[in-house]
Hints:
mainly beta; seven-stranded antiparallel β-sheet; SH3 type barrels; single chain; elongated; 2 domains
Amino acid sequence: MTAVLSRVQILAKHATRIRWLPAAGLATLLALGAFASPAAHAATASVATASVNLRAGPSTSYPVVTVVPAGAGVVTYGCTPSYAWCDIGFANYRGWVASQYITATYSGGTVVVSASTAPVVGISVVQFSKGYWDTYYTAYPWYRRWATYPAYVPPPAVAHRSASGSCAGGTCARSVSTQGVYGGSVQKDRTCGGGSCSTNRTVTGRYGQSGTMARTCTRGSGCASVRAGPQGGTVRRSFGR
Length: 241
């Protein structure tokens, strides 16, 4: 029992390191609201509502690639996690504009791109990186000055996190709830006692879909787990420990 309780205490202390998914994968799920809609990665036809600078990165600190005139048709490929800036294509140019200056067609009308409207019209979250810079800007005079521009730091994917735990009668339990900035959530419950530990995790997306994982480990017998996806598929696994 002492060994089991010690393991629970270690797990509680390092709970943020225990992942069903890698940390980066969890952050991405939360930022996307988990299990995005089928149209999440489609390019979306949009229109510029005013003359706006097309920049080489999601900030006014990045150089101007060109100017997109008011009323011009553009293609939106995605937006930053905050939906403040969007990656668009205009003519033969590629770059970033503030989302408030573009609209997308939806249900016969147009809507300004924002955190609340973008997922509905099929605009997903994308990331800005050196790879993007190298792909589109090698011919520009400021290309080699990448390091002089401030690094883009996306906002945290987690909006709220709470944890609780207790031990009584030789059994310890811990629960961790994590809420993503755009509605996704992760609930993890763990109980250890009598030589065994059980873990249940549920990842729920902003569209209501969810995936689950249940795992039980018993001293001397190993572990068994079952994972179920949002479409009903399951994966079972057993292993010694």
